[in-house]
């Protein structure tokens, strides 16, 4: 499966952004999906994950209550709605596909990755 993330940009603290990830290739609904982020000089970290059907989700503590992951299998699309953004949310955000299990938090467990989209939150 090929993944392409987009929707990043520059936003002020307290603002919102919606990231999207479009999949092509194998059946999108056969993959659990996740969002990760990587800030300059830091390791890639888990943000959120969603099951194949979309009925189950998992969030990092740092974004719980502010971010919402969702998917539309009919549109082969994954989303990340980000509200109440903080400067520490600044990072390149990546979508990823997991063909084995769902809701995993380790980046090494994901099989396919998008190219990333930059989110910059100004104070």
List the helices and strands and how they pair.
Layout: E1 2-6, E2 9-12, E3 17-24, E4 32-38, E5 45-50, E6 57-59, E7 67-72, E8 77-82, E9 91-98, E10 112-113, E11 117-122
Parallel strand pairs: 2-11
Antiparallel strand pairs: 1-3, 3-8, 4-5, 4-9, 5-6, 7-8, 9-10, 9-11
What does this structure look like?
This protein has strands at 2-6, 9-12, 17-24, 32-38, 45-50, 57-59, 67-72, 77-82, 91-98, 112-113, 117-122. The strands form two sheets. Strands 2, 4, 5, 6, 9, 10 and 11 form a seven-stranded mixed β-sheet that branches. Strands 1-3-8-7 form a four-stranded antiparallel β-sheet, with no helix packed on it. A hairpin with a 4-residue loop joins strand 7 and strand 8 (77-82). The protein has no helices and eleven strands. It starts with a strand and ends with a strand. It is an all-beta fold and 123 residues long. The chain is globular and about 40 Å long.
Beta strand %: over 45%
What is the string of helix and strand elements?
Answer: EEEEEEEEEEE
Largest sheet: 7 strands, mixed
Mean pLDDT: 96
Q: What's the count of strands? A: 11
What is the helix content?
Answer: under 10%
- Termini, distance in Å? 37 Å
The radius of gyration is 13 Å
Q: What's the quick description here?
A:
Helix content is 0%, strand content 50%. It is mostly beta strands. Strands 2, 4, 5, 6, 9, 10 and 11 form a 7-stranded mixed beta sheet that branches.
């Amino acid at each position: 499966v090929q993944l392409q993330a987009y929707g990043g940009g520059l936003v002020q603290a307290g603002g919102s952004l919606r990231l999207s990830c479009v999949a092509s290739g194998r059946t999108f609904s056969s993959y659990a999906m996740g969002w990760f982020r990587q800030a300059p000089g830091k390791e890639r970290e888990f943000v959120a994950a969603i099951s194949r059907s979309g009925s189950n989700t998992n969030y990092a503590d740092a974004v719980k209550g502010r971010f919402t992951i969702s998917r539309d299998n009919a549109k082969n699309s994954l989303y990340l709605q980000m509200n109440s953004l903080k400067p520490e949310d600044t990072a390149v955000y990546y979508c990823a596909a997991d063909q084995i299990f769902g809701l995993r938090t380790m980046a090494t467990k994901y099989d396919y990755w998008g190219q990333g989209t930059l989110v910059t939150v100004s104070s």
